[in-house]
C-alpha cells in the first residue's frame, strides 16, 4: 500500500498555515478594538472636581465643659440699671466696649442749654481756625463746647473772629468749621462767649484734654488744683512712653470708642474727656491731692464778730460752703460730708473754741 502524496500534504499544510495566520490577525484586530473602546469610555481624572470637606470650628469650652456665652450690650445695660452693678466691674469682666454709651441729642450753637443742669464737673473743648502769615499757624477761637458730668450739652457756640484778624485757614478737615458757621448774626462775639464760659467755670472742676490750649485761645485762667487734664494724667501716659497721648487713642484703648474719624466735634471731644475722667475719677482726685493737698473749703455769707475785748472771734460756728448743685454720681472731694434731713449733702460744721484775752 502506498503512502500519501507528498505534494498533496505540502499544499494542505500551506493552506492550514494560511488559515491559522488569518485567524490570528482577526483575533488581534478584535482585541485592539476592544481596548480602544474601553479607553474611550474610561473617565479622565481632570473631569472630576475634588472638593475638600471642612469641619465647623469647635465652640470654645470651659474647664467644666459648658459653652462660653457673650452677653449682649442690652444685657449689660440691664445689669447696670436693674441689678445696680458697677460699670467698672463690667469693664473689668467684658472690656471697655461692653458699657452702653448714653446717647445725647445735641443742638449746635444754642449757647446755654435751656434744661440740662451744670453740676460740679464741666468738660471743655474748643475748635480753632488759622490766621496769620503762611502756614497760618496762629489760632483763633471758632467754637466752644461744654458738657456736664454725664456728658449732656451745657453750652455750645460758634465764635466770630476779630475784625482785624481774618481767617486764612478754616481747617475744616479737622475742625469741622466752615465759612457759614462764622458769619455775623449766627456766631457770637468773642467777648460774649468768653464771659459766658468764665461764669460757667467759676468754682467748678474743669475737665478736658490739653486744657492749656483751650484756655489760652479763650484768654482765661483756671486754678490748677481744679483742672483734670486727661493728657497729663500719669496712667494715660504709660502707653505713649510718657508723652501726651492723643485723645483718639485714649478713647480707643480706654473706652473702646472710635472718635475723630473725620471732621472733629468739640461736643464729642469734651464728652470723651469727661468719660475718661469718670473712668479714672479716683486716680485723678488722688493725683490732685498728692500735688496740691486737700481741697480748702471756702466759706461765704457771714462776717466775723468782734469780742468785747476788741479781738476778732468766730461766731461759734464756721459758715458753710456755698454748695453747688451736685448731679448723680458727683461727689465733693476733700470735704468731710454729711447728709442733712432734707437729703442735701452739706459739709459738716465744726466748732471752734473762743479765744479769751489773757490778763
Automatic annotation (TrEMBL):
<keyword id="KW-0378">Hydrolase</keyword>
<feature type="region of interest" description="Disordered">
    <location>
        <begin position="1"/>
        <end position="78"/>
    </location>
</feature>
<dbReference type="Pfam" id="PF00929">
    <property type="entry name" value="RNase_T"/>
</dbReference>
<dbReference type="InterPro" id="IPR047021">
    <property type="entry name" value="REXO1/3/4-like"/>
</dbReference>
<dbReference type="InterPro" id="IPR036397">
    <property type="entry name" value="RNaseH_sf"/>
</dbReference>
<feature type="compositionally biased region" description="Acidic residues">
    <location>
        <begin position="310"/>
        <end position="336"/>
    </location>
</feature>
<dbReference type="InterPro" id="IPR012337">
    <property type="entry name" value="RNaseH-like_sf"/>
</dbReference>
<feature type="compositionally biased region" description="Basic and acidic residues">
    <location>
        <begin position="18"/>
        <end position="33"/>
    </location>
</feature>
<feature type="compositionally biased region" description="Basic residues">
    <location>
        <begin position="346"/>
        <end position="359"/>
    </location>
</feature>
<keyword id="KW-0540">Nuclease</keyword>
<feature type="compositionally biased region" description="Basic and acidic residues">
    <location>
        <begin position="294"/>
        <end position="309"/>
    </location>
</feature>
<feature type="compositionally biased region" description="Basic residues">
    <location>
        <begin position="49"/>
        <end position="62"/>
    </location>
</feature>
<comment type="function">
    <text>Exoribonuclease involved in ribosome biosynthesis. Involved in the processing of ITS1, the internal transcribed spacer localized between the 18S and 5.8S rRNAs.</text>
</comment>
<comment type="similarity">
    <text>Belongs to the REXO4 family.</text>
</comment>
<feature type="domain" description="Exonuclease">
    <location>
        <begin position="120"/>
        <end position="286"/>
    </location>
</feature>
<keyword id="KW-0698">rRNA processing</keyword>
<keyword id="KW-0539">Nucleus</keyword>
<dbReference type="InterPro" id="IPR037431">
    <property type="entry name" value="REX4_DEDDh_dom"/>
</dbReference>
<protein>
    <recommendedName>
        <fullName>RNA exonuclease 4</fullName>
    </recommendedName>
</protein>
<dbReference type="InterPro" id="IPR013520">
    <property type="entry name" value="Ribonucl_H"/>
</dbReference>
<feature type="region of interest" description="Disordered">
    <location>
        <begin position="294"/>
        <end position="359"/>
    </location>
</feature>
<keyword id="KW-0269">Exonuclease</keyword>
<feature type="compositionally biased region" description="Polar residues">
    <location>
        <begin position="67"/>
        <end position="78"/>
    </location>
</feature>
